[in-house]
């Protein structure tokens, strides 16, 4: 269903009087049980769960796609090898059978209000209200200041071998170790050795490993090199890492974990974050430190994959449905730290 057809909602609005204007007065009327911000795997799965529970749900999505550079989604049962855009199109198509679920390509400008009466304002659109809000905005990957990195990100440079490992197995793999990531060097290198026995680690400027770890990596057959100066490509494919010394190390694939940040909408809402910068949520309900605002998917964890995000969205939506079903749900939040919703500015991611 489309937001433009909002007046058709009068027939199923449980007696609510709709305003005469498609914009005026929306802020004072609770139209939705849940508004979902972000239409990737987490948001789509949440909308499906809520639709099947007959909850009045609006899915909003009009931000940049984090996996836009990836050709396909892998390691997702029944959807292994599906292009990201096709995945979203199929997900939306499957939502059409549920009459209380609406989808809209719209950007969110602000979120305000509180539990039971959140106000979600759209860019160039109305302000809508909902009893609860679900954030599925994902994360923003910072681009590394490494010449050539942007050209291969998502095609020959990846984060996750489970998502992009099988297709490049037994090739020459490298991994980039940034300062602060030293504790992950040994387990990540050992993990990569399951796909190829040709693994090289590159220590970025400022990254250092103790001799004991270096010895363990050598025992695994992992070669260690110094700081990369740039990535060398040939015919659009990654060919080598050029070191600051000028030497070149031939590789076909590079794994890296660039810093991540929350989208502006989440930063402005200012929920409590964990030590790594991910939104802290209640393990059972997915509720943030702001009562009535839930979060699911990549913005809540470093364990990021399409399948995991979808599972998170479905689980959180089920908890939200239960909260909505409880007689005290509009007044009593779940067992999360106290807080109140703030006005927030940003866009859906």
UniProtKB/TrEMBL annotation:
<protein>
    <submittedName>
        <fullName>Pyridine nucleotide-disulphide oxidoreductase domain protein</fullName>
    </submittedName>
</protein>
<dbReference type="InterPro" id="IPR050097">
    <property type="entry name" value="Ferredoxin-NADP_redctase_2"/>
</dbReference>
<keyword id="KW-0285">Flavoprotein</keyword>
<dbReference type="Pfam" id="PF07992">
    <property type="entry name" value="Pyr_redox_2"/>
</dbReference>
<dbReference type="GO" id="GO:0016491">
    <property type="term" value="F:oxidoreductase activity"/>
</dbReference>
<feature type="region of interest" description="Disordered">
    <location>
        <begin position="328"/>
        <end position="349"/>
    </location>
</feature>
<keyword id="KW-0560">Oxidoreductase</keyword>
<feature type="domain" description="FAD/NAD(P)-binding">
    <location>
        <begin position="32"/>
        <end position="313"/>
    </location>
</feature>
<dbReference type="InterPro" id="IPR023753">
    <property type="entry name" value="FAD/NAD-binding_dom"/>
</dbReference>
<dbReference type="InterPro" id="IPR036188">
    <property type="entry name" value="FAD/NAD-bd_sf"/>
</dbReference>
